[in-house]
UniProtKB/TrEMBL annotation:
Organism annotation: Croceicoccus marinus
Gene3D superfamilies linked: lambda repressor-like DNA-binding domains (1.10.260.40)
Pfam families: HTH_3, Peptidase_M78, ScfRs
Protein name, UniProt field: XRE family transcriptional regulator
Coiled coil region boundaries: none
Family statement: Belongs to the short-chain fatty acyl-CoA assimilation regulator (ScfR) family.
Domain called HTH cro/C1-type: residue spans: 12-66
Single GO term (MF): DNA binding
SUPFAM superfamilies for the chain: lambda repressor-like DNA-binding domains
Keyword tags: DNA-binding, Transcription, Transcription regulation
Amino acid sequence: MARKAIYLGPRLKRMRREMGLTQANMAADLDISPSYIALMERNQRPVTAELLLNIATTYRIDIADLANDDSEETTTRLQAVLRDPIFADIDLPGLDVADIAASFPGFAEALMRLHTAYGEEQLALAARREGGEGGETAAPDPVAEARGFLAARRNCFPSLDDSAALAAQDLPNIAAMIDRIRDRHRIEVSFAPPEMLMGALRWYDYHRRRVLFSRQLDHKARRFQLALQIAVLERGDEIDAAIAEGRFETDNGRVLARRALESYWAAALLMPYRPFLDAAKRLRYDIDALTYEFQVSYEQVAHRLTTLQKPGAEGVPFFFIRVDRAGNVSKRLDGAGFPFARHGGACPLWNVHQAFDRPGDVLVQRIELPDGERYVSVARTVISGGGSFDAPRITRAVALCCADSRAGELTYSDRLDAAQSTPIGIACRFCHRPQCIARSAPPMGRELRFDHYRRSGVPFAFADE
């Protein structure tokens, strides 16, 4: 049987440069010619097993570190980037993409970083156009910055998922997490009455080396807060590295993004990526069933479902929104790139607003936007706070949406009538449906039409042209 040739050009070059060696230096160390080094680095010559062993012995490195081929993951990530419509007219066969990933990994990484920056700038431009009036630029919005940072990356951070999954092997329950904080960080953990924490859920007393958690937290909330404390104590450098890739105009935007990634890691610890993805597919994305399997809350599961876009291991892309009774949007998480992900949520015909009429029930609705695109929306109320008779609490509604083309993968599709959908708009000012009785404002760019002889029942009638 013929032996498979091993081509390690980019990795060999990267290793040589990291050690501060020239091709001539390496050639002298390995007793070969500089030209042969150059040929290997250009993948024009394979690395023989004998030479690979010589490299490992000479430079005291693990052969596996050099021979490990991560080009497959790079290829998957690059293919995901190249599916952007901006590249639609460029013919890039799969084999060419694989060749780029294997032979020019630095170029592939540069392209992926540029695409991420491009996505962030597109979101920032949309925000400026939305907020600016009379040619004036809107003031920087820290919340929008943090949301844009997450949306540009489809709310998916594989490096955080990987480290959290590794930590989860040693932290299966509350007792293990408490032991971790005490043993590794020399910080005492205790649960205190709410009056001692002055309304806080968690208080890290840095000077006394202790962390206090409110006794009013239920089991699921305690697990999450402990996981969050571990993220703060152990994953700071990793999270800072992710934040450094973003573009922020305000310090507050950066802080909000950092807090979001700390929560991301905590959720990934409680719901490790691969087991959670496998369970989600097996249970057909049944949110209630997933809450029992992973012992987390409904909202935590809904959050986590928006993050399943790791290249090569993707789940159904979801968009998440949380609103209060007044229609204020307090959270958006976009793992799907939906058109209403940034500014939508105000349409009263959407079931996320109707959920308040049936607290605790899961509502399923097929919605259709003015451009004809259809989505499936799963909405339910959730309660925050509480824990005692007089403790403050608030009821909000959350909705999880996916493209209608993926509806068959969801258990909720069994409730849907294939021929029925509810027309909604991103917001009244962007919606040009003329007969909507729920309209609260006329659409931009349309002239109002007043009829003195009849009333149609539509709040704002406007010209068809």
